[in-house]
Amino acid sequence: MRLLLLIIILAGPGSFYAQQTEVVDFKRAGVDVWIGPDEKIVYGSVSFEFEILKPTDSIYIDARNMRIEEIRYAEEKIAFDYDEKRIVLKRNWLPGKTEELLVRYRAWPKKAMYFLGWDNAAPDEVWTQGQGKYTSHWLPSFDDMNEKLEFDIEIHAPKGFMVASNGKLISSTHLPDNQSWKYDMDRPMSSYLVALAIGKYQKQTLLSRSGVPMELYYRITDSNRFEPTYRYSKAIFDFLETEIGVSYPWQNYKQIPVHDFLYAGMENTGATIFSDEFVIDSIAFNDRNYVRVNAHELAHQWFGNLVTETSGTHHWLHEGFASYYALLAERHLFGDDHFYWSLYKS
User: Exposed/middle/buried for 345, CB within 10 Å: 0-12, 13-18, 19+?
Assistant: First the structure.
């Protein structure tokens, strides 16, 4: 008995929730959020569709340091437990039908969503970084990367700004106080790959050889740097799709530069966000360019986004495949000498 109690104590409360995917399948999240840069706030609602797979007495949604305003199930408010990390819904959950749940919330995220400018000289931008930071800091979602669901996202942002997110843009609507941008996904993905970027952008759209739209974003002030920044983008896309031998799995592919990004780039599903340090002119292209990061993040759309590790301990698989295919893309562009020299240096 003492041994059993010790195991329970050492395992901790998280262990009871570790295998939620075995008892419930969250299928879709309908996201409707407002972004308030002046207050550094995000608020709105998430409508979840899910199916209970096995009888259970509780299910949970990750939500870090939020104000949970209400939760509705079967169109009625229901009670919930919340410890600033996780919403736990306790009831007699039984299999048999598709269920719906609505969460209304407010958050002032300290990580995973970042507000740049607005009150200083930096460009006025909002962008997200879910991997390693947890999307659940700004959106009720799932830290477990094994829980994949379709995210359809509507974002309300200040007028005069462009909003990029995962999926296909369905509508952009001018409202009295803001502008609404509605994006639709058609395949499930892990929550850490949900992304948005808001800024003073324009974009150009290219078509890959297979007909996939490639949306290349740039700041209005950087129009003369567009070509050097995105040089070889179409060639990289066409090469990787052929070399990997699996059709690009998402509706389109966006690339969005942001200011003061945490890393070189991040392969959010169908929407890579990358550091504006790679927005360069033709002279700087010879010293520092976006080509390898471009290829690396694109390769992740297959290795990481389509096929995903079961836990962070296997992250080397994501990075190993992406790094290797990026080198193959450079070999295709620049030849064998460049390829072998890059292998030697690495």
Answer: exposed
